[in-house]
Design goal:
This protein is mostly helical. The protein has one domain. Helix content is about 80%, strand content about 0%. The chain is built from five helices and no strands. Helix 3 crosses helix 4. The longest helix has 26 residues.
């Protein structure tokens, strides 16, 4: 299960970096030093659907679950094949949306 939790953690990093790139595009270089994906999206000025906001909230949990020892075991058990596959699909969907948003001309 460790490899699944790590994959989800890296997925969080991918979305976080894309959100920060979008933030820079819209607001300049003073990127907020936060890892909460929904807050980053709001800071970047993105309009979120309820579904996307929920996905970002869920993916944010992958950051905390991997970094802190007291959360690791619970998180590892949660990371089944199915759980990981579903969340990787969500991460990929958000990744595509963010990349499109970043590359669109204003």
């Amino acid at each position: 299960m460790y490899k699944y939790s790590y994959a989800l953690f890296v997925g969080h990093l991918v979305i976080e970096k894309l959100l920060k790139a979008d933030y820079v595009k819209n607001n300049g270089i003073n990127i907020p030093r936060i890892h909460d994906l929904e807050k980053l999206a709001n800071s970047a000025g993105l309009k979120l659907t309820e579904k996307r906001a929920n996905e970002l909230q869920d993916i944010t949990k992958f950051n905390i679950g991997v970094r802190y020892d007291d959360c690791k075991k619970t998180f590892y058990k949660k990371c089944t094949d199915k759980f990981t596959e579903e969340n990787i699909k969500s991460i990929n969907g958000l990744r595509k949306w963010l990349k499109k948003n970043i590359t669109e001309k204003d």
